[in-house]
Write a structure and sequence with these properties.
By secondary structure, the chain is of the alpha+beta class. The protein has 8 helices and 11 strands. The strands form 3 sheets. It has a 4-stranded antiparallel beta sheet with strand order 4-7-5-6. It has a 4-stranded antiparallel beta sheet with strand order 9-8-10-11.
Length: 261
């Protein structure tokens, strides 16, 4: 087996990358390969025979995925992580009504009649093209005009659901391996009930081939509801156990690189 190295995109908008890099240095005595935004923009990827696992901003990781020699370092299926791709598999866990429509068409739809005065609007992609917001239906024309350059993109509209607490759960092959509450500190452990729900969601998605996932679960009126699905190469760990995160990522990387060769 070849040497496994971490390639980490350090960026102030993604503090989790520094947390992982520092843990590797302090506890595993490993110096990760560090790239910055200039490296990413110019395509200056390392010329290495080592097996690589990538971690950093989605901007960097999506571009690393396009660099064929190191694309195995990325586990995330960004197309599969569109809401329109995975909602049909996990709809029972959402617990709210929704619809998909072109962003530019939203002001022309009878959304007030369907959802009431308040609606939640987000991009279909996990790469947020416009802010995910709770809006008044009468605000939609101005909102769509503000982000008109995305008018042909697919949007998700749903009824508003408020979450008392939210948890980020990392799962590999349908099994929880680390997580915490998010996004605000102090972080807390993920209760067993939430872990079980996250695992059920992850297992429902196994048929898609996505085996490394973040499952975000919120508590609404005392009941767990799915917030959204994400990947692992570009998702923050918040208060998760860093050692457990690194171990699972490295196990997955080894499996994938071994299959590659």
């Amino acid at each position: 087996m070849k040497t496994l190295r971490w390639l980490i995109d350090l960026h102030p908008e993604f503090p989790a990358s520094e947390i992982v890099a520092e843990y590797l240095r302090q506890h595993k005595k490993i110096e990760p390969i560090i790239i910055d935004r200039d490296d990413v923009m110019l395509g200056r990827w390392p010329d290495t025979e080592d097996w690589i696992v990538g971690y950093g901003t989605m901007f960097a990781m999506t571009r690393l995925l396009r660099h064929q020699p190191l694309s195995t370092a990325i586990f995330d299926d960004y197309l599969g992580l569109r809401c329109s791709k995975y909602y049909s598999y996990i709809y029972p866990f959402l617990g709210r009504a929704f619809l998909f429509a072109p962003f530019g068409a939203l002001p022309n739809l009878p959304l007030q009649r369907m959802f009431g005065d308040d609606i939640f609007v987000r991009s279909d992609t996990n790469y947020k093209l416009f802010p995910a917001e709770v809006l008044k239906t009468q605000e939609l024309p101005h909102w769509v005009k503000t982000y008109s350059h995305h008018q042909n993109e697919l949007a998700v509209v749903s009824e508003v659901v408020s979450f008392e607490t939210e948890y980020r759960c990392f799962c590999r092959n349908g099994i929880f391996f680390c997580g915490s509450s998010y996004p605000d500190e102090p972080y807390s452990e993920v209760p067993q009930e939430i872990r079980s729900v996250a695992e059920s969601v992850a297992q429902a998605l196994e048929v898609t081939g996505m085996n490394m996932l973040t499952i975000d679960i919120g508590i609404h009126a005392g009941e767990p509801k799915l917030v959204e699905i994400g990947g692992v190469n570009s998702w923050g760990i918040y208060g998760s156990n860093v050692a457990d995160f690194i171990a699972a990522m490295e196990e997955e990387a080894i499996d994938r690189w071994e299959d590659f060769i």
